C-alpha cells in the first residue's frame, strides 16, 4: 500500500502543477514558481543525501550563488533565460568545487555540520557584500527574462511559472536519466559500502566530488529560476529555515527518490505558506513538530514492511547438470 501511495501522490501533484496557472490567481502562480525553484534544490539534496549517502544542509550556498549570478547576468549582460541558467549553474558548481577540500574527507554528522556552516557563511557574505548583492536590502528590479533568443519576454506571472516548470522538468529528467546509468549504480554502491567500493578499485573520492559539484550546479540553476520568478533576491531567501524545509521535503518525499524529493519539497513549502496565513506566528512551530513526527514515523514504517523473501541458497540459477537429473535407486546410488 505504501509503495502505491507515493507514486499516486506524485502523479496527482505533477498534474496539479501543470494545470495550476489556469486555475489559480497571479499571486499563487508566482508563489508556485518560487516553490518549484526550491523543489529543484531539493532534487540536489536527494541526490547527495539519499543516492550518494552524503547528508547536507548546505545546498542553500550554491542556490544563493546561482541566484545572484543569474540576476547580475540578466541585469547587465543577457536577458536570455537559457544563458542565465547556464551561468548560474556554473556559479553553483564553482562554489561546490571550492568547498570540496572540506567535504571530501568528512562523512555523517561531521559532513552535515560542515555543509550547514558553509550555507550560513554564504548568507552572511551575501548580506555584507553590498556592492554586488545589494546587502540585506537585496537586488530589486531584476530585468524580465526571455526563455530563448527570439522569444518574447516573460512579463506575466503565468509565463514565468510555465518557464520555471519547463526548466525544472528538463533538469529533473536529465538527473533521472543519469541515475539509470552506471553512474547511479556507483553512487548507490558507495552509499551502501564505501570501503568495499574502494577496495574493488573505484575512485570513491572522484565520485563524491562529481556528485557534489553536480548538486551544486543544480542548486545554482534553481537560483536563476528564483531570480526570474520573483524578480528580487535577498539573503533572507537562503537562511537556515530554507535548509530545514529542503531536508524535510526530501525526507517526506523519500531520500532516495529524486521525483519524490521534488514533490515533497513542493508539498512542504505549500504547507508552510498556508500555515503562515492560517496560523500567524505559529508556522515554524508546526513545521518543527512535523519534522519530528516524520523523522520518527518513517523508520517505523520501513521496519513494518515485510522483508523480501530471499532466494534459497541451494536453488540453481541455470539449467541443472545432466547427472543431477539422473534417477536414484532406493539405496541412494545414481543409476
Secondary-structure topology with pairs:
Layout: H1 2-19, H2 26-51, H3 60-76, H4 81-98, H5 100-103, H6 108-128, H7 130-133, E1 139-140, H8 157-179, H9 182-192, H10 194-199, H11 204-230, E2 232-233, H12 240-253, H13 258-278, H14 283-304
Antiparallel strand pairs: 1-2
Helix pairs in contact: 1-13, 2-8, 2-11, 2-12, 2-13, 3-4, 3-6, 3-11, 4-11, 8-11, 9-11, 12-13, 12-14, 13-14
Description:
The chain is an all-alpha fold and 335 residues long. It has a single domain, classed as ABC transporter involved in vitamin B12 uptake, BtuC. Helices cover 69% and strands 1% of the residues. It has a two-stranded antiparallel sheet with strand order 1-2. The N and C termini lie far apart (51 Å). 39% of the residues are buried. The C terminus is likely disordered.
State the main characteristics:
14 helices; 1% strand; globular; mainly alpha; 335 residues
Task: Put the structure in a nutshell.
With 335 residues, this protein is mainly α. It has helices at residues 2-19, 26-51, 60-76, 81-98, 100-103, 108-128, 130-133, 157-179, 182-192, 194-199, 204-230, 240-253, 258-278, 283-304; strands at 139-140, 232-233.
Order of helices and strands: HHHHHHHEHHHHEHHH
Counted up, domains total 1
Give the C-alpha Rg: 24 Å
Helical proportion, percent range: 55-70%
Number of strands: 2
Question: Which regions have little confidence, pLDDT < 50, spanning 5+ residues?
Answer: 300-335
- Major beta-sheet overview: 2 strands, antiparallel
Instruction: Based on the coordinates given, report the CATH architecture.
Output: Orthogonal Bundle
Q: What is the CATH class designation?
A: Mainly Alpha
Distance between the termini: 51 Å
What would the CATH topology be? ABC transporter involved in vitamin B12 uptake, BtuC
Share of residues in strands: under 5%
Overall pLDDT metric:
81
Given helix and strand content, the structural type is mainly alpha
Shape: globular
Give the number of helices.
Answer: 14
Amino acid at each position: 500500500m505504501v509503495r502505491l501511495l507515493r507514486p499516486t501522490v506524485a502523479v496527482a501533484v505533477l498534474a496539479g502543477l501543470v494545470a495550476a496557472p489556469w486555475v489559480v490567481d497571479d499571486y499563487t502562480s508566482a508563489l508556485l514558481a518560487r516553490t518549484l525553484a526550491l523543489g529543484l534544490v531539493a532534487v540536489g539534496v536527494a541526490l547527495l543525501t539519499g543516492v550518494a549517502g552524503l547528508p547536507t544542509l548546505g545546498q542553500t550556498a550554491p542556490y544563493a550563488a546561482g541566484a545572484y549570478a543569474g540576476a547580475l547576468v540578466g541585469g547587465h549582460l543577457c536577458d536570455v533565460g537559457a544563458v542565465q541558467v547556464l551561468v548560474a549553474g556554473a556559479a553553483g558548481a564553482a562554489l561546490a568545487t571550492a568547498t570540496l577540500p572540506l567535504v571530501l574527507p568528512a562523512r555523517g554528522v561531521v559532513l552535515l555540520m560542515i555543509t550547514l556552516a558553509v550555507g550560513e557563511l554564504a548568507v552572511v557574505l551575501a548580506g555584507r557584500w553590498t556592492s554586488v548583492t545589494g546587502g540585506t536590502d537585496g537586488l530589486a528590479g531584476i530585468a524580465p527574462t526571455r526563455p530563448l533568443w527570439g522569444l518574447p519576454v516573460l512579463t506575466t506571472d503565468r509565463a514565468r511559472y510555465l518557464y520555471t516548470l519547463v526548466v525544472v522538468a528538463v533538469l529533473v529528467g536529465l538527473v533521472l536519466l543519469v541515475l539509470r546509468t552506471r553512474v547511479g549504480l556507483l553512487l548507490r554502491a558507495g552509499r551502501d559500502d564505501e570501503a568495499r567500493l574502494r577496495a574493488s578499485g573505484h575512485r570513491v573520492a572522484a565520485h563524491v566530488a562529481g556528485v557534489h559539484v553536480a548538486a551544486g550546479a543544480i542548486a545554482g540553476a534553481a537560483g536563476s529560476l528564483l531570480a526570474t520568478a520573483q524578480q528580487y533576491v535577498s539573503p533572507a531567501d537562503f537562511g537556515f529555515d530554507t535548509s530545514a524545509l529542503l531536508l524535510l521535503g526530501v525526507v517526506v518525499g523519500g531520500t532516495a527518490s529524486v521525483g519524490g524529493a521534488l514533490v515533497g519539497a513542493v508539498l512542504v513549502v505549500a504547507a508552510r505558506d498556508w500555515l503562515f496565513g492560517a496560523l500567524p506566528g505559529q508556522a515554524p512551530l508546526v513545521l518543527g513538530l512535523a519534522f519530528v513526527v516524520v523523522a520518527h514515523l518513517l523508520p517505523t514504517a520501513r521496519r513494518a514492511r515485510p522483508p523480501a523473501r530471499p532466494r534459497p541458497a541451494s536453488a540453481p540459477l541455470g539449467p541443472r547438470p545432466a547427472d543431477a537429473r539422473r534417477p536414484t535407486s532406493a539405496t541412494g546410488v545414481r543409476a
